[in-house]
Design goal:
This is Dimethyl sulfoxide reductase anchor subunit. With 262 residues, this protein is mainly α. It is built from 9 helices and no strands.
Length: 262
């Protein structure tokens, strides 16, 4: 798939932002946050590297910064770099002083969330009809929350309050996504009848061809969220790990289908 670098980039950066959010929420706990912060930094860094591979010639990334005032791509690069810089500084301080900075983690999370918004805007304002809906932002922000919860469960175990908060967030995100789907499908149905819409044919055909895989992905997402929630409330780590694995696989499938409509 020629969009594989973008799939890797979006999932890694969104997962990193989600993990940073949970790290920020865990700063009051008496435990080491450094392993989770290092993982978040690595995910964000690898994501940015993957994004340059999509450009064909990686040095072209610098040219994309020349139109911040008008280009969502330029804004996305700026906030992604800002997010990673602040997170890197916060991680360095933990390594040196053994004490996490709530302010830096909050700023990193904020920059990351703005970056995800800009990331979504790139696709919402594109000519591909299946991306031109609020569903794109719902899926992107949802991926950050779900991946952050699933990865945080593995790196920040034993914090009951945080894990239950993560479980509530995962269930809420899954419910919101499902509630958005009927309006999204209606939007696509009306777009197929609108001759003004650019490129309605191929993306819509591909969207319907992926119905079976999409149902599998949604099934995994619902099952994973339920297992994750049950595990959190019953302190069953096995259920949480299985649920988290299902959620990660579902996110990968959903993102694969997002980029497979061209």
């Amino acid at each position: 798939m020629h969009e594989l670098p973008l799939l890797i980039f979006t999932l890694l950066v969104q997962g990193s932002v989600g993990l940073t959010l949970f790290i920020a929420l865990a700063t009051g706990e008496k435990r080491s946050l450094l392993p989770a912060m290092l993982v978040s930094c690595v995910m964000g860094g690898l994501g940015l590297i993957a994004s340059t591979l999509h450009l064909g010639y990686p040095l072209n990334a610098f040219n994309a910064l020349r139109h911040v005032e008008s280009s969502w791509l330029s804004r996305e690069i700026v906030f992604a770099s800002l997010y990673l810089a602040i997170l890197g500084l916060a991680t360095l301080l933990v390594m040196l002083k053994k004490q996490p900075s709530r302010l830096l983690l909050a700023l990193a999370t904020l920059a990351g969330l703005v970056d995800i918004y800009c990331m979504g805007a790139i696709y919402v304002h594109s000519s591909v009809v299946t991306w031109q809906h609020i569903n794109t932002w719902v899926m992107f922000f949802g991926a950050a929350g779900i991946l952050g919860a699933a990865i945080g469960n593995g790196l920040l175990p034993g914090i009951t309050r945080l894990l239950r908060m993560a479980a509530v967030l995962v269930v809420a995100i899954t419910a919101i996504r499902l509630l958005v789907q009927p309006d999204y499908v209606n939007f696509l149905a009306s777009a197929s009848l609108n001759e003004v819409v650019t490129l309605p044919h191929q993306p819509l055909v591909a969207f319907h061809q992926l119905t079976g895989l999409r149902n599998v992905a949604w099934g995994l997402s619902v099952l994973g969220s339920l297992l994750f929630a049950i595990g959190a409330w019953r302190s069953c780590r096995t259920a949480m790990l299985l649920g988290g694995l299902g959620l990660v696989v579902a996110e990968a499938l959903l993102r694969f289908m997002f980029f497979s409509i061209l």
